[in-house]
Amino acid sequence: xxxxxxxxxxxxxxxxxxxxxxxxxxxxxxxxxxxxxxxxxxxxxxxxxxxxxxxxxxxxxxxxxxxxxxxxxxxxxxxxxxxxxxxxxxxxxxxxxxxxxxxxxxxxxxxxxxxxxxxxxxxxxxxxxxxxxxxxxxxxxxxxxxxxxxxxxxxxxxxxxxxxxxxxxxxxxxxxxxxxxxxxxxxxxxxxxxxxxxxxxxxxxxxxxxxxxxxxxxxxxxxxxxxxxxxxxxxxxxxxxxxxxxxxxxxxxxxxxxxx
Length: 260
Description:
260 residues, alpha/beta, Ubiquitin-like (UB roll), 2 domains, six-stranded mixed beta sheet, four-stranded mixed beta sheet
């Protein structure tokens, strides 16, 4: 299934009315099935479904490593992903019993909301990031996102590993973009613990928790953090950056990782 849907519309511009072929982003319910058990469904854009599934399952602690995956298949015209893997059954039970519908666009569930119950390690990485590099990467962020350029209707995430290696995630749901970008990197066999993550939307609790679950030390956005996002970042030693625009930013937590 193609992520773009073409439709004929009427357009008004400069006082003129004319026919126009517009590009709309598709929105589907993607089912994730692990070892024949339905884990859940994500409202998402039908692209990079494998990466999204891997990123989501690892963000929730259901799968510990890409090496634990035996097989991934996309079925039902891209609307279902079936995974055979070694899993953490306690994480599956926790998602079933404690999962909440999160605040991002689309509809998804996570068990990583309460700072006192998130099963993640405090980030001890003392990597430093040059502020100018961050400003440069954020300034060209949207120019590397083809679905956004075509439709203006998706969120984006970028996982930067080095100047030659980065991974883009695009989706209607902002939390899915992180899972897609990270999932792509993990499936490519990349080490991500010295990387930094950029997102287009707000830094809400589930966005912050995903970075922490993967031990990514720096998370940046063009917009702000929520109170709960801030508290989770502070507890787990994540450097959280907001309003990264032009040559300015807000450093909410752990400023020592930013070299100005």
